[in-house]
Amino acid sequence: MQMLRLNKQYVIPELYLKAAGELLFILLALCWAITMTTGSRAFVANNPLLDRVGYNNLCIGFDTSPAREVGQLLYYPLVYMAIRFAWTDMQRTKLTEDQLTPGVARLAMWADVLYMISVCVFGLIFVVPPMVSMWGHTFLFHQYILARLLVAWTNIYEYNATRTVATKTWCFMWVYTVASIGSVLCCELSYAMFDLHNCGRVQVGSNCMPDLQKPQAPYIPWYITAFFDYLWFVCLAVGSFYMPLAEVICLTFEIKELDSLPSYSKVDQAEEEPGKTTAINRIPRKGLACCR
C-alpha cells in the first residue's frame, strides 16, 4: 500500500520504512503458504525452534526450500526500500539540522547508517538456516528487530522537535518497544537455558540436541514468548497507521547539456599544465539528468 503512494517529485522517507515493513509481512505470508503446501510441511512439526521455545516463529516459513529461495528473491525489494528510507532520512536530517539539537541530529544519522548495515546483514538469514546454527540464525533476526526499533524512535524524536506527536503514536511506540525487547529477551533466555541443559550431548552443526529421555519444557512458557513475538509482527503490519509523516523533500528535475555544467566546462576548456594531469577528462555524453 505504501509503495503506491511513493512519488518521484516529493520524497517522504517514512513511506519507504513503512513499505519495507509491509514487504516483510508479505514475504512471510507468501513463504508460509509455500511451506504449508509443499514437502517442507514436516519441518513445521519438527524443528530446532520447537525444542527451544515450544512454538513456531513466523520465520520458520522461509527456513526450508523452496520457500527460502522465493523469500530471498522477495527480500531484494525490501532492502531497496530500507536503504532508500535511511538515505533520504539522512538527507532530511541534514537539511533540518538547525531545528534539531546536535545530539538528536547525530543519533538520527548514526541510526540510519546502522539500519542500512542491519538490513544487509539480515539477508544472511537465508544462508544460515536454523538446522546449521540456531544462535546465528536468530541473531540475524534479532539485530534487525533492535535496529528497526532504534530508527523508529529517532524518527519520533526528530518529528517531536518541531511538532507534537499524537497520543496514538506514543502508545503504538511503547507497544512496539515492549514487543521488540520482550521478543528478543524471552527467546535468548530460552535458548541459553536449553543449551545449559543439553550441551555436551549430541550436536548437529552447532546446535545442541534435546535430551529425549528427560525432555525439558521451555525456560520461558511458550505462550509468553509467542505473545511478544506475534505482537511484533502485528506492529509491523499496522505501523503504517500510527507512524507520523515528517517534512517532505521536494525535488525538481531538468535535463542539461554536460558542457553547460560549470564543473565540467572549466575542465574541458582549461589547458593542462606541463607535468600535471586534469582530475576529470572530457566525457562525451549527449545530456545529463540534473536534480536540485
List keywords for this structure.
single chain; 292 residues; mainly alpha; two-stranded antiparallel ribbon; two-stranded antiparallel sheet; 6 strands; disordered C terminus
Short description:
This protein is mainly alpha-helical and 292 residues long.
Structure description:
This protein folds into 2 domains: 3-249, no CATH class; 256-291, no CATH class. Helix content is 58%, strand content 5%. The chain is built from 9 helices and 6 strands; from the N terminus they run βαααααααββαββαβ. The chain has helices at residues 13-36, 41-45, 48-53, 67-95, 102-122, 134-160, 167-198, 222-238, 262-269; strands at 10-11, 203-204, 207-208, 249-250, 253-256, 288-291. It has a two-stranded antiparallel ribbon. Strands 2-3 form a two-stranded antiparallel sheet. Strands 5-6 form a two-stranded antiparallel sheet. α4 (67-95) packs antiparallel against α5, α5 packs antiparallel against α6 and α6 packs antiparallel against α7. The relative contact order is 0.13. The model is unreliable at 275-292 (pLDDT under 50).
Mean pLDDT: 80
What spatial order of strands do you see in the largest sheet? 1-4
Class based on secondary structure composition and strand pairing: mainly alpha
Overall number of domains = 2
Secondary structure tally: strands: 6
Determine the N-to-C terminus distance.
28 Å
Helix content: 55-70%
Low-confidence stretches are 275-292
Strand content: 5-15%
Q: Count of helices?
A: 9
* Cα gyration radius (Å): 24 Å
The major sheet is characterized as: 2 strands, antiparallel
Name the shape in a single word: globular
Order of helices and strands: EHHHHHHHEEHEEHE
